[in-house]
Amino acid sequence: MDVAISVQDVYKRFGEETVLTGVSHDFEEGKIHGIVGNNGSGKTVLMKCICGFLLPTKGKILVRYKEVGK
To answer: What are phi and psi of 6, to 5 degrees?
Structure first.
């Protein structure tokens, strides 16, 4: 199993509002993945963190073993 993206215990807060709470998942290379959830559950915020548009408040995201935002 080769991990393309690793999300490790990610939290994201905007002021007093916590949007992501302890999200962890490994996305394997070469597979198709989907992120499913209700409106307002944090799907877009997670994707923005993975892309580097937003930095996590806590935790880390690795893309091909390099930490996003470093």
So the answer is: -125, 120
Across the beta sheet with 58-63, the strand order is 17-28, 3-14, 58-63, 66-67
Q: Tokens 């993945």 belong to which residue?
A: 33
Residue type, 4: A
CA–CA distance from 59 to each of 22, 25, 31 (Å)? 8, 12, 24
Find the mean pLDDT for residues 36-64. 96
Q: Is the pTM of this model over 0.85?
A: yes
- For residue 57, the one-letter residue type is T
Decide: helix, strand or coil at residue 52.
coil
Q: Which of 20, 13, 3 is nearest to 62 (CA)?
A: 3
